[in-house]
Predict the structure.
Amino acid sequence: MAEIYWDNVSKRFGSVTAVDHLTLTAHDQEFLVLLGPSGCGKTTTLRMAAGLEDATEGRISVGGRDATHLEPKDRDLAMVFQNYALYPHMTVFENLAFGLRLRKTPAADIQRLVHSAAAQLGLEPLLQRRPSALSGGQRQRVALGRALVRQPKAFLMDEPLSNLDATLRAQTRLQLKVLHRQLAATIVYVTHDQTEAMTLASRIVVMRDGVVQQVDTPEAIYDRPANQFVASFLGTPGMNLVPAQLTRTSGTLSAAIGTQRLELPADSARRLERAAGRSVVLGIRPEHLHVGAPEGQGTNPMSLRARVRLVEPMGHETMVHVDLDHDVQLTARSIHHWSASPGSLVSLSLDTRHLHAFDPETEVACEAR
Ligand SMILES: Nc1ncnc2c1ncn2[C@@H]1O[C@H](COP(=O)(O)OP(=O)(O)OP(=O)(O)O)[C@@H](O)[C@H]1O
Ligand SMILES: [Mg+2]
């Protein structure tokens, strides 16, 4: 297996910059996930690695070797697409064997490679069927199997699960994760599904408009987003963002949020110290906001008053959407069943250890890390 390195790579299509000065390494045996909204340049990044698209500038190397001008077939990378096309008139076995036959692989090796890939993907009972007699998930596994039998240096996968229904998606996702462990393979995987990214990735690359926003482990991306975009892109719903003014008075750091004032305890004050005296955008995830019975006016400097807008029961949790007094909307996630009628007053306590602050101009995180 091999490392893939994008060295200051850009791709322009006419006036559109699809990928903008990307410097990135997919390390050997890493499961690297490219995540971002539609049009942010994920597929283009992958296709340039595969050699299906020429970089406008920059270089690409595979396994330490300059591959910038290599033909796709000489890069030894296997690509799995969203719209996998299986040969309908061939059996699963023949579909898996096809690429090997093209490369004049000896028959005994074909037998061994196909059976080994089929075993890894649970396809053995299906080897004599044709694609039309397979479920969507089974077909997707055949497409994966075709990549597998090639024993490539690395796998490039572009939303390979997006054609599957939710249940199959979850199953196949699990299988991919197991497969990655077994093969110790380098996988670069494109998705706009944050659950896939969080569950599969060794590291996530968050992209926006062709520009990398953050590269880090799933935990770090979620817990310490580098900017507002990353903060709101991950999490369902995303992080709550509220304009505030941070002030320090007689040793206490507090946040003025609309007409309310929230005192920050020492640990979070230390993290946000750099932003003292400034306007910021505070960020807090729905699971770190707790809704409770209303308290008297200003009795608790650690909590905020809010009014319920809407309660969404989801079975295992409840989303409580509330308004602060100046039309700022927040969402709290509660694992408890919560019922309150719209308009009723509640108190919001914040788990301030998980409070973030962003620069209102640059949107970059301004907390100490
Ligand atoms: N062949 C092309 N010609 C012109 N523009 C292109 C071409 N391919 C991609 N683009 C543009 O480049 C940008 C990045 O496209 P890309 O397909 O890499 O996005 P993506 O992140 O994979 O999006 P999606 O999640 O929708 O698949 C988009 O603005 C797209 O319209
Ligand atoms: Mg794409």
